[in-house]
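User: I'm designing a mutation panel for Cytochrome c oxidase subunit 2 and want to avoid disrupting the core. Could you give me a predicted structure to guide residue selection? Please restate the sequence first so the numbering is unambiguous.

Assistant: Good idea. Sequence first, for numbering, then the predicted structure tokens:
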Amino acid sequence: MAQPSQLGFQNAASPIMEELLHFHDHALMAVFLISMLVLYIISTLMTTKLSYINTIDAQEIEIVWTIMPAIILIVIALPSLRILYLMDEINSPGMTMKTVGHQWYWTYEYSDFPNLTFDSYMAPTKELESGHYRLLEVDNRMITPFGTAMRMLITAEDVLHSWAVPALGVKSDAIPGRLSQASFLIAHPGVYYGQCSEICGANHSFMPIAIEALPVRKFLKWAALAQNTSL
């Protein structure tokens, strides 16, 4: 989850988010180098003692400032296209889940476990347990196994929503009448928080997402117990 006074991204909990963090640092380095060069040129022009320069021809300079930006754009674009391809690629997911956005809560359906469906509401402040986070904790967390390729089907029942978990590098719009698809793989056990990222009404900021990643054996035990309870 995000921390007070945090300047950077959240720590990566999935391979895709790690790639996004590396690309962010890569692009930011290019931005810093360009900014330093521009500031150096501006400061040089402001402090020069020369009052008049008659430039008749500067083909070399024009070639440089045409080719260099093209090279910089290629260096930034190629890693970006690679990450876009990785984010859209889904090869034989280990488990498929579906989430439906409502005003203002989420419904989760486990496609591989019949009759395993539940709603997830934000936990009221008065009912929070020690160590839980206000406006981020829910009454029923989405439970998943870590180390398993997940396919997430995302839609909405009423208005536009957006299912986003920053630590996993996942953000997908939930559109009524349409199924969006996202994939992720949680690399570490733990609890990961997100929020609806589409302004969906008066209680938009009160429909958080909480994902708890468990070892596969514990997840299967939880799924069996939850199925029996729901039946």
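For picking mutation sites, this is relevant: The first helix runs from residue 15 to 47. The radius of gyration is 24 Å.
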